[in-house]
Write a structure and sequence with these properties.
Layout: H1 6-38, E1 92-94, E2 107-109, H2 135-144, H3 154-180, H4 185-208, H5 220-242, H6 249-270, H7 273-290, H8 295-311, H9 316-324, H10 326-334, H11 342-369, H12 381-385, H13 401-419, H14 425-447, H15 452-473, H16 476-497, H17 505-511, H18 514-537, H19 542-571, H20 575-599, H21 605-630, H22 633-658
Antiparallel strand pairs: 1-2
Helix pairs in contact: 3-4, 3-5, 3-7, 4-5, 5-6, 5-7, 6-7, 6-8, 7-8, 7-9, 8-9, 8-10, 8-11, 11-14, 13-14, 14-15, 14-16, 15-16, 15-18, 16-18, 17-20, 18-19, 19-20, 20-21, 20-22, 21-22
Length: 667
């Protein structure tokens, strides 16, 4: 060391010490930044503010680069980097993090003296800077990351089977113990209640000690224990009400509903369809072994409502459980209403109506209001509406057809309103399902109308309305309902009204009434509507469809003419003469229609003429095979003369219209 230059050596040592301190601080900041990046997959803990006066965690206290409280140090920058004068703040500063940038240290340029000096960025005591490691990024990632359904593992299967076996054992405890007389009723009920509490408590304790992972967020054993315990508690309440009458029925309904809501709320919180199925299906399957009274379907409906309201988003299995399981029980009890008193019948009717209303409401909320809408949500409408088909036949609701018409109108209204959202798949399926259910209820109501003829007429009018709606609206489900309804109406008309009676004089005079006139006219309108609808659906085959429809409509209209002739003749005291005159009119009508189609000018001349030739052939066949054998002398003569005259006129006019101009020169 040169003794003549002690100050220069000291300055060099101080400069080296300051540089080492800055390097150490930057290394510490880089390590902290890397640690923050490594914690991205885990929830980011909120940054705790640093109290004023405390050292920041970037540089450990006591480090040479960390000034002690109250101490002063010279500027750590080297002498050549210490500017003086106005341009001092325009140099690069070390160790100052940029505002809004990653807290990894570095350099940033300082603003000039004559301009606005940028404020230092928030340090550890301020809010966390946005970036890959900030809390905002973690929250956005959690919102956009899709929820992954837990996988079905062996542990889950074993837990579900074990819970089912345990639940069956509890049911046997309540039922078999009664038959064997093992211990008194109070002991059975208390034992089942204690066991249910132990199972639920143990399941919640296991879940509280479970370390959640993306693959297994919920302990399968906890699911099985809690589900088994809640189902056991509901079975115990049902036993106390139906077997021992210790709990009033309204209070039991409230207890079961509360337990079901608690179970579904927990299943919703854990996002577990397995828990919802254990609670709901376990109780619904084993409850019939404990109770066979009229309270059973009401208990099942209450449990189904709780499951539908809180567990509708837990998968299709939950929808199947709450919508399919109560339906056959309700159907079975509604078919045996004669075994129950008036109050019990009212309870069953209310349960069926509420069950169906919940099904429609849940399907509407899932299909129309949820985004994206689950397409299978509308399928719950079908099983929940099955019990409604029996309401029209209940003695308590006689006449039952107005009830069926009102219910059908409600479902058809839902179908129309949902069908207007044709751009979304969910409402389209809901419209189709509700429309089919409403149509089935409507046809079922007509069956309970009373009277075969009235039922046939109602079915025919309904089918005609559906055909018109299908032609105007253009929905596939309406097309299906219209086609099936038209086929059913035509089959019922053939069976009930027996239009073939119009071919036999003796049977027609004895059997045909004014109902046959009205029914035949309605079927004629049905044939016209079906022809119009089918021609719109298959425009390429429109001519053939029109030909077939015209023949069917003419046949049914002919039956109406014969029936009207019999009825008018009967009023005049000569039903046989009315029958004969009607057949004469029918023959002339057919040959006249054929002549008009052959001779009429039309853009579709070939199709019209082809149809005319078909009708003319049918009229000639009727004249030779039916009128010749049925009509007596005078009517037979008139029939042959009329047909011959029309055919001659057609021949003359047809030859003149089809001959080319200038071809009439003598030969």
């Amino acid at each position: 060391m040169n003794p003549e230059q002690p100050d220069h050596v000291l300055r060099m040592l101080a400069d080296l010490d300051a540089r080492l301190g800055r390097i150490t601080a930057e290394v510490a900041e880089v390590r902290s930044g890397l640690a923050a990046l490594g914690r991205q997959a885990r929830p980011v803990q909120p940054t705790q503010p640093v109290p004023p006066g405390q050292p920041t965690p970037s540089v450990p206290p006591g480090h040479p680069a960390q000034p002690a409280p109250g101490a002063t140090h010279p500027d750590p920058r080297p002498a050549y980097a210490q500017p003086s004068g106005p341009g001092r703040d325009s140099v690069w500063r070390a160790g100052a993090p940029q505002a809004g940038g990653p807290a990894l240290g570095g350099y940033r340029p300082a603003g000039p003296v004559d301009g606005p000096r940028p404020q230092p960025g928030p340090g550890p005591a301020g809010p966390a800077a946005p970036g890959p490691a900030g809390p905002g990024w973690t929250r956005r990632s959690a919102e956009t990351r899709p929820r992954r359904a837990p996988r079905l593992t062996a542990a889950t299967v074993i837990a579900a089977i074990g819970g089912s076996v345990m639940l069956a054992g509890i049911a046997f405890l309540l039922v078999v113990a009664i038959q064997a007389g093992l211990f008194p009723p109070i002991a059975r009920v208390v034992a089942a209640a204690v066991l249910a509490l132990v199972l639920v408590g143990l399941g919640l304790w296991l879940q509280s000690r479970h370390e959640a992972t993306p693959e297994r967020p919920i302990n399968p054993g906890a699911l099985a224990l809690v589900g088994t315990g809640l189902a056991a508690a509901m079975l115990d309440v049902i036993a106390c009400t139906t077997l021992y009458q210790w709990i009033p029925v309204p209070a039991a309904y409230m207890f079961v509903g509360g337990l079901a809501l608690a179970g579904m709320a927990l299943a919703q919180r854990w996002s577990s369809g397995l828990l919802a199925c254990l609670v709901s299906a376990g109780t619904m399957v084993l409850a019939p072994f404990i109770s066979t009274g009229v309270e059973l379907p009401v208990f099942l409906v209450i449990l189904a409502i709780a499951t539908a309201v809180l567990g509708a988003e837990l998968g299709i299995a939950v929808r199947v459980v709450w919508s399919f399981f109560p339906a056959p029980v309700l159907v079975g009890y509604l078919t045996q209403t004669h075994l129950h008193d008036r109050g019990e019948q009212v309870a069953l009717i209310v349960a069926a109506l509420v069950f169906a209303a919940v099904g429609v409401g849940v399907a509407w909320a899932d299909s129309v209001r949820r985004r994206p809408a689950p397409e299978n949500a509308a399928l719950v409408v079908v099983p929940t509406a099955v019990p409604l088909l029996l309401l029209s036949g209940l003695v308590l609701l006689r006449p039952g057809w107005p009830v069926g018409v009102v219910l059908a109108a409600a479902y058809l209204t839902v179908a129309v309103v949902a069908g207007r959202r044709a751009q979304e798949p969910g409402p389209v399926l809901l419209s189709a399902v509700a429309g089919v259910v409403g149509s089935a209820l409507l046809f079922g109501a007509w069956v309970e109308l009373g009277g075969r003829e009235m039922t046939s007429l109602a079915l025919t009018l309904s089918a005609t309305g559906y055909l018109v709606a299908a032609g105007l609206w253009g929905r596939r489900w309406v097309d299906w309902v219209a086609g099936v309804g038209a086929a059913i109406a035509l089959a019922v008309y053939v069976v009930v009204n027996e239009p073939f009676l119009a071919l036999d004089e003796r049977l027609a005079v004895r059997e045909l009434t004014y109902w046959d006139v009205v029914a035949a006219f309605a079927v004629t309108a049905l044939a016209v509507a079906a022809t119009w609808w089918a021609s719109r659906r298959v425009p390429r085959q429109a001519s053939r469809v029109v030909m077939a429809g015209a023949v069917v409509a003419l046949l049914t209209f002919s039956v109406m003419v014969v029936a009207a002739g019999v009825v008018i003749g009967d009023l005049a005291g000569a039903a046989r003469n009315g029958f004969l005159v009607a057949h004469l009119v029918v023959t002339v009508l057919w040959i006249s229609c054929a002549a008009w189609l052959i001779l009429t000018p039309s853009p579709r001349l070939s199709d019209a003429r082809r149809m005319g030739f078909v009708l003319g052939s049918l009229a000639l066949a009727k004249l030779l095979f039916l009128d010749l054998a049925t009509l007596p002398g005078l009517f037979r003569v008139l029939s042959f003369i009329a047909v011959g005259a029309v055919m001659l006129a057609v021949a003359v006019r047809y030859r003149r219209d089809t001959e080319p101009s200038g071809s009439g020169s003598p030969t």
